[in-house]
Amino acid sequence: MAFNMDLVNEPKRFFKENGLADHNRYDGDENLYIKTRMELVKAMKEAPSCPKEFECQYVPSMEIFGIMVSHLTITKMLLEGQLTADVAQFVNSILSTHSFLPLHASTLACC
């Protein structure tokens, strides 16, 4: 898809004339963002993977448990001298960063 780059310094026209989503930033349907957001929420609730009423979603909590076990394993390997401190710190920092998503999914009801 080729964009009209002549309009790059005019964001309103750039988004409008290139047919890009820039909700509520140019003249058009001001409720488009809300409408598409509500459609997304409805689709998520109707998805077969969405827990039904009184059902639990175990995937995020099991993922958090797996991350915790990984942290403990890396720490144990560091203490036993199987890993250097910089490698252990790097891997555990990646695991910590990754843990945000399942924690976020576990604490906010998305469905």
Describe the structure.
The chain contains five helices and no strands. The model has no long low-confidence stretch (mean pLDDT 78). Helix content is 59%, strand content 0%. It is an all-alpha fold. The chain has helices at residues 11-17, 32-46, 59-79, 85-98, 100-107. It folds into two domains: 5-46, no CATH class; 59-107.
* Class computed from helices, strands and strand pairing: mainly alpha
Radius of gyration: 22 Å
Domain module count: 2
Runs in which pLDDT lies below 50 for 5 or more consecutive residues are none
Strand content: under 5%
Whole-Å distance between the termini?
34 Å
Structure at a glance:
The protein is mainly α and 111 residues long.
Features:
5 helices, mainly alpha, 2 domains, 111 residues
Could you give the topology of this structure?
Elements: H1 11-17, H2 32-46, H3 59-79, H4 85-98, H5 100-107
